[in-house]
Every structure is written in structure tokens, then in C-alpha cells.
């Protein structure tokens, strides 16, 4: 197979959908029905849409004793109020496809009983002709409760029985810890974080007889399709989920949440298409969040900084009805060569809604504890934090003995140290000042596993020389539209403008969830495969065609550029796709690309990072200001450098938020979240963000997938918060083990 010239891949291109987004033409679920018909995905016009507003529980635990809908029903424009009193028929078939959902526990069955499990639980839905009428009527619904005292505080609450996978041990950690020359110990606390994407969750549901069409905010149209099919007891073929644009998600649109079921249920009962948009406040109860953690960690080491023992005691919140447990144990098993390790991970069922994945899920929470503790050990042993990490670099994956596909963490550390000017750092805390500001530098390593799942893509080249590529993946912001177009353009030998990539429709070829940083590896490889096959088919057509100037040429000697096939090195000899297809009376060529991961059991595949932070802490006020940040990443091949920077810098902003600002505050008296809005839940603003820089090690990982990528979206988040916490320690000499680091903690 001939090597195609690369023009688009690796070029710092802007988003192909950027203009649509900034001009408001990108249609998000809540934008529909739009005044005009969309050009993407062939979305039909939705006529006669009515509006639904959810009524939420105002207690966190107990029973509903009554729902009085008389005033709501009497309001003009109200079409109905649905609650458990109506006993709406839902099937809730098992859904083996919902493997992202917690394996233990029961989905929240909407309106199926009188039990209240958390504050903000949907207890009724009002449907009206206008949004205003629905909102007003929802306010008029009177719900009475037999309320009980909820438990919503992770600290001190009893734990679930562990799953078999929640205990891990190698070596003899207690003995190794007892005999260690140096020990450090701490409990690190991470508060709950909410994703707070700009776009609210929204669903429009329409029934056409037995068929259900849903326009939804989702990172996984096939997951939403299968869940709706299971909830309503339908065949998946009768459900179509459409989601061409997602305005940020960070993991909380991976699962299908109750409001999607409610919209479809309301549409069925009211016999009209129904639109349901969660309010900003409902986004704190109606979808998941990053769970709060208590992470106790003890490290034992030699005086020379060889970590010999690590004992992890991890607690995380979950709901009373589902046992959500994410990959928080993994980094502690393979980030360092530590021979003796014990981990116990316990979830704590609380009267809260179920948490879910949030950027760098689990791995980033663990990294805060592990990388803070490593910094404490560096301080204790007097070893430079980077040198300490280099001394604990494993030769193979210590959790399973597998070789690493590629592991260039040491190179990330060394490259970053040089670029950040680490050698200028005086290791003594509180040693550098700028007026009233104490200046500190900190760093942390990061790791995130390289996920890959089976993916498919459809590729069609039309007689006019343009191509259409489709896969049922999503673009929650990383730029899937753009990066897939880049891959396809080069593989087909077309310009960016002559390739269109479509996603977000469950009728498109199968794609895994758009999460876990696996979209490029899986869908990208399927796109590459489909486009390679299509180009080869065109080449074959040409070389076998006696009327083609390429007749008889060895197929391996032909490349395609700008839609023109020609002999490599002899551009004059060739013809265009259009000429080839026209002469052969072909309206189009079509292929299907696939990617099936292999070699899972032969290599340990992960992405790595080294993150550096410089902070200034006001000596008297305890205010922390970021001065600069650098991330160095071993993520395999970079398909789209500008989008990679968007991911890396965006994750630094998110990590700055996690480290210094973001904090979901629950009133434990009644289980209400007191800052359930974007005014009181603090996220960084421009003034909080300093100079940010990302460096990607040049290279590829062909064990991971044929296009050599290792995933980017999660790893860029992983080491950010601990690098900042370590910089705060270096600036002040104060070790803050609780996130977010507030001014109070530094006074
Ligand atoms: Mo990401 S937390 O997998 O959307």
C-alpha cells in the first residue's frame, strides 16, 4: 500500500465546525426545534413540540405522602402532570449494553414508587403548551412528604460491602512499611465537583407509532438508544437518538439520566413531541458528578528514595441505589515500581444521586493523593521531586508484569524540567518572595490508561469528488469533527473542504462511548481503515481500466492528492476521482472501515504526563494566584495540534478550578446543595489563568492502534491539581491535603 502524503494530519487547523458554533448555527438539543432545517444528519423538522418541567423533591430521604396537582391542572395551557400516582408503565428491562452504569444497584426508576432517595429527585413532570406555563404549573404542584433525616456526609458514614475488585495486594506491604527507613502518611480529601458544562442537558422526544426519536445531549447515542429501548421494552431498531452537537460534557453525558426517560414518557402519555431542558440547578441533581473522596495513603521508602511500600485506604461517596466505583485504584498499582502495595477501596452509600465519570475519572483523584504524598516524601528525604520519581520508574507494569507499549514518563519529566527552568528552584520551602507574594514551584506525574474499543465508519466518495464519512460517535468539545476530517482527507487524498464528517446519530456505524479518551484510537482508526480501503478501491478501478491513464500501473505506486490519482513522482500521469467515476458510470464508491483492538493482553498501554506549576501565595491573605503552568505529554501521535492544545490548556484550566475553586457544598441537614448555580460554584475566569503551555513528545504508539494515538483528553487533567498543591507547599511550607485549597487553609 502506498504511503499517502500528509497535509491535514499534524497541521494546526481550526475547527471545521467553528463557524457554525460561533454564529449560533450549531444546533444543540435545547435549540430545537429550530427555525430552519438543519443540514447535518438530515434532522427532520419537529412540529408541535410542547414543554416539560420536572418537579424535584425538596427532601433527601423519605416517602411522598401526597401530590396535589389541582392548581397546576387548572392553569391554561397545561396538558398534564405525571407522577408515580399515575403508575406510568415502564419496563426497565436489563440493559447489558449499559456497561458504563454501575454494575451493582438499580437504576433510578422514574415515577415508579413513592420513595425519595435524594434531594432534587424527580417526583413529577408537568407538560404544557408553553415553557412559561409549564414552569408556573410546576411551581403550583404541592408535594407532601414523610421525611427522614438524610445522610449525605462521606466522613464517618458506613461503607458498602466491597466488590471483589476493591481489595488489592502485592508483596507484604505492612512488613515493608514497618521496616521502611522513611515513612510519610496523610489523608487527602477531594470535594465533590460538578461538570458544569455550558450546555444544559436537554431532550426532545417524539413518538411516531411504535418508533421513538430522541434529540438528546449525549456522549453516546448508542448507549442512549439501548437504554431507552430497555426502559420502554422496545427493540433498539425502533429508537433513534440524534445528537450532532454537545456543548461540553466532561463525562456526565455518558450515561442516560432520568430526564431522558421522563421526556420520552411524557411524550408518550401526552401524545405530543415533548422538550425537556434541565435548569442550571437541576444539573446538580439530575445528572452525575465527580464523587468526593477520602484517600488515606502511607508510603515507606529507603533513605535513597526507593518507595518500597504503599498502603492505600480509599473511600468515595455513591448513592443508596447504585454502587458507582471508578478506576481510582489503578494508578497506585502501576505508576511506580513499588514492590509492596495494599489497596482497599470502599464506597459509602449516601442519600444522594449517583456520581459518575468526570474528566480523568478516578485516575486524577488518585493522582492528587499519590503525587502529593510523593512530594511529601521528596521533602522528607531531601531528594528533588523529579529525581524521586525517576528513581521509582518501573521497567514493566508492576501490576501484571506486562511490557509497556510505550512509556516515556522519564522523558516527560526531563523535558519539562528543562523547559520550565526547574533547576532554578531552591528546594527549601518559603525561600522565594516577590513583595507580599510567596512564590513556589511544584510538579506532578500523571498516568491514564489507553482505552480502545471496536469501532466502525462508513465512507462514501461521490461522483462530484467529495466524500462523506459517518460514525455514531460524538464531539463534546475535543474536535471530533475536525480531527476525523483531517484523517479522512489525507487517507482519501482530498482537501479538508471536500470531506464531510458526520456523527451523533444512532443510525450511523457503531462507535463506543465518546469518553475515556478513546475516540481517536477507535473511531479514528476505523475512519483511517475505511478511507484507505476506499482509496485502494478507486486505485484498483483505475489500474484495471483500459481507458485510464493509470492503466497497468502498480497500485502501490499510486498516490492521491487533491482528489487526483497519479503515479508517485510523476504527477502528470493521472486522473481525478471525478473523471474515474464518471467514465465508469459510478455514482459513488462506498466502504466500511473497522477497528478491532488486539494485543490487549500483551502490553500495558497508558498515556503519561509531567505537569509543572508556579504559584504566588499572598503571605497575609492566603490568596493563591497561578503564575504559569507547563504540561509535557507522552500521548502517542498528535493528529491535530491546535485541538490538542485546546484539550491540554482546557484541562489545566479545569485542574486549576479543581485545585483552588471548585467545591460542591451540601447542607447535610437536609441534603440540599447550597451552591447549585454558576454564580456560587466557582470556576476559573480569565483573570485566574496565567501563561499555559503544552509540549507533546514526538512519536507514536503502534501497539495501541494503527494510527499510533494513546488518548489525550483525560491525561491532560490528571496531574494538574497535585502540581498546584505541591507548588503551594513549596511557596508556603504549608501542606494542604484538602481540595480545593482555600485562603482559609493557608492563613
Ligand atoms: Mo470522559 S470522563 O470519559 O467524558
From TrEMBL:
Domain of life: Bacteria
Chain ranges of the Aldehyde oxidase/xanthine dehydrogenase a/b hammerhead domain: 23-149
Keyword Amino-acid biosynthesis annotated: no
InterPro entries associated with the record: Ald_Oxase/Xan_DH_a/b (IPR000674), Ald_Oxase/Xan_DH_a/b_sf (IPR036856), Ald_Oxase/xanthine_DH-like (IPR016208), AldOxase/xan_DH_MoCoBD1 (IPR008274), AldOxase/xan_DH_MoCoBD2 (IPR046867), AldOxase/xan_DH_Mopterin-bd_sf (IPR037165)
Keywords recorded for this protein, A-Z: Molybdenum, Oxidoreductase
Name this polypeptide is given: Acylaldehyde oxidase
Source organism of this protein record: Streptomyces dysideae
Pfam family for this entry, one: MoCoBD_2
Keyword Oxidoreductase belongs to the record: yes
GO molecular function: iron ion binding; oxidoreductase activity
Amino acid at each position: 500500500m502506498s504511503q499517502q502524503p500528509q497535509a491535514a494530519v499534524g497541521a494546526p487547523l481550526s475547527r471545521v465546525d467553528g463557524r457554525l458554533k460561533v454564529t449560533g448555527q450549531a444546533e444543540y438539543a435545547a435549540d430545537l426545534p429550530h427555525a430552519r432545517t438543519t443540514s447535518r444528519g438530515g434532522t427532520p423538522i419537529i412540529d408541535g413540540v410542547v414543554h416539560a418541567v420536572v418537579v424535584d423533591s425538596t427532601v433527601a430521604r423519605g416517602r411522598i405522602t401526597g401530590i396535589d396537582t389541582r392548581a397546576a391542572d387548572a392553569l391554561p395551557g397545561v396538558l398534564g402532570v405525571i407522577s408515580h400516582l399515575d403508575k406510568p408503565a415502564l419496563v426497565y428491562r436489563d440493559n447489558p449494553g449499559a456497561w458504563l452504569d454501575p454494575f451493582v444497584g438499580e437504576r433510578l426508576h422514574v415515577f415508579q414508587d413513592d420513595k425519595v432517595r435524594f434531594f432534587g429527585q424527580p417526583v413529577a413532570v408537568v407538560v404544557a403548551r408553553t415553557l412559561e406555563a409549564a414552569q408556573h404549573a410546576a411551581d403550583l404542584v404541592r408535594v407532601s412528604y414523610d421525611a427522614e433525616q438524610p445522610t449525605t456526609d462521606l466522613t464517618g458514614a458506613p461503607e458498602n460491602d466491597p466488590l471483589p475488585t476493591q481489595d488489592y495486594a502485592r508483596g507484604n506491604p505492612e512488613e515493608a512499611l514497618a521496616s521502611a527507613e522513611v515513612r510519610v502518611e496523610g489523608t487527602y480529601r477531594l470535594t465533590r465537583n460538578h461538570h458544569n458544562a455550558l450546555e444544559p442537558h436537554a431532550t426532545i422526544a417524539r413518538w411516531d407509532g411504535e418508533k421513538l426519536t430522541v434529540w438528546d445531549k449525549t456522549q453516546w447515542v448508542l448507549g442512549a438508544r439501548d437504554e431507552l429501548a430497555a426502559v420502554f421494552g422496545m427493540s433498539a431498531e425502533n429508537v433513534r437518538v440524534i445528537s450532532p452537537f454537545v456543548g461540553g460534557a466532561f463525562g456526565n453525558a455518558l450515561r442516560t439520566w432520568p430526564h431522558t426517560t421522563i421526556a420520552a414518557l411524557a411524550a408518550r402519555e401526552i401524545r405530543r413531541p415533548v422538550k425537556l431542558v434541565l435548569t442550571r440547578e437541576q444539573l446538580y441533581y439530575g445528572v452525575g458528578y465527580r464523587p468526593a473522596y477520602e484517600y488515606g495513603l502511607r508510603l515507606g521508602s529507603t533513605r535513597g528514595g526507593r518507595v518500597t511500600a504503599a498502603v492505600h485506604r480509599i473511600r468515595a461517596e455513591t448513592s443508596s441505589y447504585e454502587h458507582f466505583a471508578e478506576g481510582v485504584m489503578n494508578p497506585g498499582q502501576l505508576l511506580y515500581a513499588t514492590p509492596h502495595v495494599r489497596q482497599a477501596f470502599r464506597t459509602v452509600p449516601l442519600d444522594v444521586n449517583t456520581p459518575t465519570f468526570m474528566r480523568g475519572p478516578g485516575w486524577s483523584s488518585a493522582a492528587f493523593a499519590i503525587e502529593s504524598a510523593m512530594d511529601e516524601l521528596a521533602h522528607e528525604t531531601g531528594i528533588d521531586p523529579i529525581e524521586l520519581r525517576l528513581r521509582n520508574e518501573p521497567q514493566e507494569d508492576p501490576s501484571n508484569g506486562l511490557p509497556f507499549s510505550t512509556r516515556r514518563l522519564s522523558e516527560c519529566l526531563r523535558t519539562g524540567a528543562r523547559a520550565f527552568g526547574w533547576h532554578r528552584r531552591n528546594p527549601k520551602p518559603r525561600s522565594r518572595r516577590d513583595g507580599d507574594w510567596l512564590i513556589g514551584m511544584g510538579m506532578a506525574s500523571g498516568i491514564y490508561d489507553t482505552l480502545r474499543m471496536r469501532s466502525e465508519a462508513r465512507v462514501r466518495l461521490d461522483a462530484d469528488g467529495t466524500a462523506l464519512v459517518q460514525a455514531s460517535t460524538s464531539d463534546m468539545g475535543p474536535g471530533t469533527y475536525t480531527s476525523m476530517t483531517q484523517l479522512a482527507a489525507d487517507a482519501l487524498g482530498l482537501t479538508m473542504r471536500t470531506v464531510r464528517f458526520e456523527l451523533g446519530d444512532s443510525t450511523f456505524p457503531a462507535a463506543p462511548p465518546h469518553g475515556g479518551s478513546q475516540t481517536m484510537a477507535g473511531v479514528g482508526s476505523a475512519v483511517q481503515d475505511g478511507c484507505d480501503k476506499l482509496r485502494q478501491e478507486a486505485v484498483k478501478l483505475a489500474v484495471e481500466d483500459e481507458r485510464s491513464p493509470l492503466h497497468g500501473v502498480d497500485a502501490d505506486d499510486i498516490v492521491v492528492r487533491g482528489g487526483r490519482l497519479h503515479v508517485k513522482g510523476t504527477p502528470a500521469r493521472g486522473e481525478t476521482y471525478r473523471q474515474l467515476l464518471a467514465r465508469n458510470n459510478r455514482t459513488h464508491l462506498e466502504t466500511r472501515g473497522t477497528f478491532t483492538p488486539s494485543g490487549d493482553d500483551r502490553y500495558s498501554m497508558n498515556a503519561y504526563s509531567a505537569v509543572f506549576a508556579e504559584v504566588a501565595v499572598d503571605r497575609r491573605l492566603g490568596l493563591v494566584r497561578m503564575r504559569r503552568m507547563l504540561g509535557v505529554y507522552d500521548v502517542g501521535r498528535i493528529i491535530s495540534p491546535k485541538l490538542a492544545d485546546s484539550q491540554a490548556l482546557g484541562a489545566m484550566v479545569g485542574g486549576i478550578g479543581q485545585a483552588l475553586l471548585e467545591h460542591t457544598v451540601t447542607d447535610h441537614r437536609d441534603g440540599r446543595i447550597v451552591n447549585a448555580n454558576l454564580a456560587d460554584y466557582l470556576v476559573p475566569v480569565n483573570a485566574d489563568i496565567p501563561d499555559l503551555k503544552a509540549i507533546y513528545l514526538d512519536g507514536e504508539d503502534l501497539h495501541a492502534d494503527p494510527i499510533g494515538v494513546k488518548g489525550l483528553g483525560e491525561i491532560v487533567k490528571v496531574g494538574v491539581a497535585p502540581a498546584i498543591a505541591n507548588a503551594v507547599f513549596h511557596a508556603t511550607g504549608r501542606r494542604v491535603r484538602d481540595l480545593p485549597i482555600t485562603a482559609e487553609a493557608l492563613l
